[in-house]
C-alpha cells in the first residue's frame, strides 16, 4: 500500500466516514414507470413496506408505503447534504419550507436545534423509467453551533462549478478546485469557514485517463470513494470498484482509470475533534444531550408538521423549485 493511502475498505451501507463527516450513503435505484400517485407502476407485493431496503427488481421503497423515500422524521445537531444526480427529491419540512430538486442539484440543510423533514422520490415519468442516483452526507456541527436556527438552502446545478480537465470532470459542491469555488454553504456550517477546508467533489474519469488530486493541509481528513467503474489505480495501487480509501491529504494523489468510465466521491475536512453522541437522527456531544433531544422532540415535535401527509409530495406538474420559510419562491 502506497504512503498516500492510509487504508482501503469495501463500501458498505452506509459508507465509512471520518470526522467532520458522520454518515454517507449512496442510493442507486432503477425505478420503473410511475403511476398516477407518483409511485411505481409495478406490484409492491413481497416488499416490507415501511422498511424496504432490499434491492428487488433494481429498486427499493425505503420507508415509503406508496411513494419511495423517507416520510417525516426529525434531526438535531448536524447538517444534511443531499446530492441528486438523477431523478428528483421532494422536500417538505417543519419550517414550512419545500422544494423539488434533482438532475444535479444539491440541498444543504442545517438541522441545528431541531427540524422535521421528509425526503420523497416522486416518479414523475409515466411513459419512461425513473432512475434515481442520490448521495446523502451528514456533516457534523461543532458544539458551539448545535443549537443554531435551522436553515434550508438549495444549490442549483446551474450554479455549481463543473471543471473539465483532460478527460476528467470535477463537480465542486463544497470547497474549491483550481480556483473554482462552490456556492456558499449554509451560514453556520463547518464548511462556511475556509480554514476548515471542507470539500465535497464528484469526480468522473473517462476511460484510460488520469487525474491528480491536489494536496491539502495535513490536518485535513480526506476520503475517496470509488463507486462506479471497472478498475483504477491510486498512486499505483490497484483499486476495485465499491471501495473507499482514506488518503494522506498533504500529498498529491494520482488516479489512473481503466477501460470504463470511473466515478468517485471525495469528502474532505478539518476534524472538529469533539465528542460525538449519536442516536438515530440526533447527533450531540453527550448522552445527556441526546436524552434532552428526545424529550424535546416528544414535547414540541420541533415545530410540528404543517403538511397534509407524512410522505408529502408536490404536484406532478411542478418543476424544480424552492419555497423558503420567509416566503421566497425560486423556480427553475
From TrEMBL:
Pfam annotation, one family: Pirin_C
SUPFAM superfamilies, per database record: RmlC-like cupins
Domain Pirin N-terminal: 61-139
InterPro entries, sorted: Pirin, Pirin_C_dom, Pirin_N_dom, RmlC-like_jellyroll, RmlC_Cupin_sf
Domain Pirin C-terminal: start-end pairs: 200-303
Family: Belongs to the pirin family.
Protein name per Swiss-Prot or TrEMBL: Pirin family protein
Source species: Sediminicola arcticus
